[in-house]
Specification:
By secondary structure, the protein is an alpha/beta fold. The protein has helices at about 25-35, 60-75, 90-100, 115-125, 130-140, and strands spanning about 5-10, 15-20, 45-55, 80-85, 110-115. It has a five-stranded mixed β-sheet. α1 runs parallel beside α2 (about 60-75). The protein is globular and about 40 Å long.
Amino acid sequence: MPVKLEVLSDRGLVYLRYDGYVKVQEALDSLEEYKAHPNFHPGHKHFVDFTRITGFEHDYVKVFALQAEVAAALVKDGFEILLVMLASNDPSKEMAHLVRKSWEGVTTVVPVTVETEAEALELLGQPERSTSDLLRALREKS
């Protein structure tokens, strides 16, 4: 699957990594997977890694409809969502820009784009400086 989802509930964090060519339906499927996860919580911070994408479906109506689904599931009273997107190449930066644009005017979602894992993890309040170290630390703990 081109979307990898990890719910790191003890860190209050959701990690999503997209690979290859991304279709809106795949992103919607990952949202459904997250909502069904036993540790689902609307207050989680989100770390979205777009660095491995090669392109994405440019159906803006579908993208904005997806964001409406995300908002319905995650945007709840009393919770602010920090959405940190890792984007270091042209397709990933373009996708992050589109996602940021789709959240304009939604004050409870704070979308931020960074170019390095270290920046992303620092913003998310994690002590590790690479995603592999973060995931390894969590697997060793469980």
